Amino acid sequence: MTDFAFTADEMMIIAASRALKNEDVCFVGIGAPSAACNVARLSHAPDITLIYESGTIGTAPSVLPLSIGDGELCETAVTTVSVPEMFRYWLQGGRISIGFLGAAQMDRFGNINTTIIGDYKNPKTRLPGGGGAPEIATSCGEIFITMKQSLRGMVEKIDFFTSYGHGAGNDERHEFGITTKGPSLLVTDLAIWKPDLVTKEFTVSSLHSGVTREQVQETCGWQVRFSENVATTLRPTPDELLVLRNLQHQTKIAHGQVT
Q: Which of 53, 140, 153, 161 could in theory staple to 68 by disulfide, Cβ–Cβ 3.0 to 4.6 A?
C-alpha cells in the first residue's frame, strides 16, 4: 500500500479523532478539538453526539465552526437549548462523557491556562479566557486535550489556573471532591500522552511516525517521561485524510478563503 504524505497537524487531529467512540456524548472545543470530533463523526463514529457551548446538541456541521456561535451549529443540531440548561442539566448533570479541550498553556498534570501569559495584573498577553472550559474540565466524565507542542505551551508551571486538571498530581483531584476522571488523553503534533496511573503526570505512550524522543523533549518545558513500551502511532489512512481534507476545504469555501 502506498504511503500518503501528511502534516503533523493532520496526524494530531486524526490521532485525536480515533479516541472517540460512537456512543460518546462529547462537549466540543473550537479549533483542533472541533476538527477531531467532526472527523470521528464523518468516519468511524457516525452516531457520536456533539455538543457545543452555545447550547447546540447533536450538531452535524458540514464545515468547521468559527466559534461556538456559528450559525452552522444551530442549523444542523437536533435541538438547541439555553446556555443555563446546557450547563446545569447536561454538563453538571453528568450527561456528557467526553470534554474535548485545547490549551494555550498546560503543565504535566493537565492543568490548563487560557487566561493570561505573564503576571495577572500586568500580563504579556491576555487570552480569550475560560468560557465554559473550567466547568467542562470538572464535570465531563473525562477530558481529552489536543495542542501543538512548544516550550511556550507545555510549561513547568502555568501562569494562571483556568481549567483544573490533576492539580499537583496523585489524588489531589478527588481530595478536592471532584469525582470525574479528569484529563485522560493528550494528543499533540508529535505524540500521544496518557497520565501515569499513580502520579497522574502525562507520559508519552506513543510517538507519531518519524518523531524522536529528542524532538518531544526539545518542545516540552518539563522533563518528559516515556512509558515502558512506547508505541508508534498508526499513520493516517487515505480515507481518514480524505475526510479531514474535504472538511477543511469545504470550510475554506464557506468562509471565502478559496473559490
A: 53
Q: Does any domain span residue 97?
A: yes
How far apart are the C-alpha atoms of 211 and 141, rounded to whole Å? Answer: 31
Q: pTM for the full model?
A: 0.93
169-181: pLDDT as tens digits: 999 999 999 999 9
Is residue 202 exposed (0-12), middle (13-18) or buried (19+ Cβ within 10 Å)? buried
- Helix (H, G, I), strand (E, B), or coil: what is residue 56? strand
Is residue 3, in this structure, part of any structural domain at all? no
Query: Catalytic positions, please?
Result: 53
| C-alpha–C-alpha distance, residues 159 and 230, integer Å | 31
User: What backbone torsions phi and psi does residue 191 show, to the nearest 5 degrees?
Assistant: -160, 170
- Contact indicator for 12, 188 with CB cutoff of 8 Å: yes
For the stretch 86-125, pLDDT in tens is 999 999 999 999 999 999 999 999 999 999 999 999 999 9
Query: What is the spatial distance between Cα 65 and Cα 109, in angstroms, rounded to a whole number?
Result: 29
CATH of the domain at 39: 3.40.1080.10
Q: Taking CA 249 as the corner, what is the angle to CA 247 and CA 253, rounded to the nearest 5 degrees?
A: 115
